[in-house]
């Protein structure tokens, strides 16, 4: 079947066979010290054999202090991490895939960190509402995060840049900066989690500064030809209903700033990516990103069928990202090409699949 979603696409200088992207999904399957495992290599390689045009990894922590967001999360914070990720990227490339590492700092929303004694950081000192999940650590209430100093902020910016370089050394085809779901860059962007009065707080321009510095530092570190993207959402994992208070004006400033800072793409996430971003009618978040960002847009959220994917491409998307439905359809692009129905995702919640199942893996012989 000939469909636009199956057509080739060029992202920076990365040649993709189609426009289907594997969404980053938390797996908590790394070793306790953050090294990727053979099972992870087999897991990601399976999507490459299924003809996913681009694979984005689960979130990867960038330093050995406060960035880790869950126990058994993989890292790109040292040379051992690089060596282990090389096994993963080699496996993906062996099967014709392209793979990007999602770089992340959980900030105040860290749910488990092997490097600190339950200490978290944020733009301002505050206690996040909600409860941590015992799937990712010890659970219970979030601790009160301590405010970052200017020197702390500069150190984190440097850590993102260093992690991007490590990703390049590990054989990744690019990196994605995680600025969605209430993670640290989003905490800077959000007024109620950022009450700073210096150049990183107050106006939207100031609150956006941290994210733009992350993009700029990563771009300076890896050069012009290495893909850098940004994932962004309005909702947070502990505030699902949140919307940018300035509506489309905020979207204009945010998406325009991301593109000007040097990002190659914007990866928008909404629970329903086909729904209007702010009101009962109006453009989707992806459409706003396309209008104001001037870079390719990946649409993510609630897409399962070829028809929904096609609709997403007409609503601002250049590429579409699949999450839970990909777990039950590792060969989704092949199925769509053959006109076959997709297999429904049947687990009641995602939690039982956080640790990789044997059914989701390529065999050792194929690896």
UniProtKB/TrEMBL annotation:
<protein>
    <submittedName>
        <fullName>NADH:flavin oxidoreductase</fullName>
    </submittedName>
</protein>
<dbReference type="InterPro" id="IPR001155">
    <property type="entry name" value="OxRdtase_FMN_N"/>
</dbReference>
<keyword id="KW-0560">Oxidoreductase</keyword>
<dbReference type="InterPro" id="IPR013785">
    <property type="entry name" value="Aldolase_TIM"/>
</dbReference>
<dbReference type="GO" id="GO:0016491">
    <property type="term" value="F:oxidoreductase activity"/>
</dbReference>
<feature type="domain" description="NADH:flavin oxidoreductase/NADH oxidase N-terminal">
    <location>
        <begin position="9"/>
        <end position="340"/>
    </location>
</feature>
<dbReference type="InterPro" id="IPR051799">
    <property type="entry name" value="NADH_flavin_oxidoreductase"/>
</dbReference>
<dbReference type="Pfam" id="PF00724">
    <property type="entry name" value="Oxidored_FMN"/>
</dbReference>
<keyword id="KW-0285">Flavoprotein</keyword>
<dbReference type="GO" id="GO:0010181">
    <property type="term" value="F:FMN binding"/>
</dbReference>
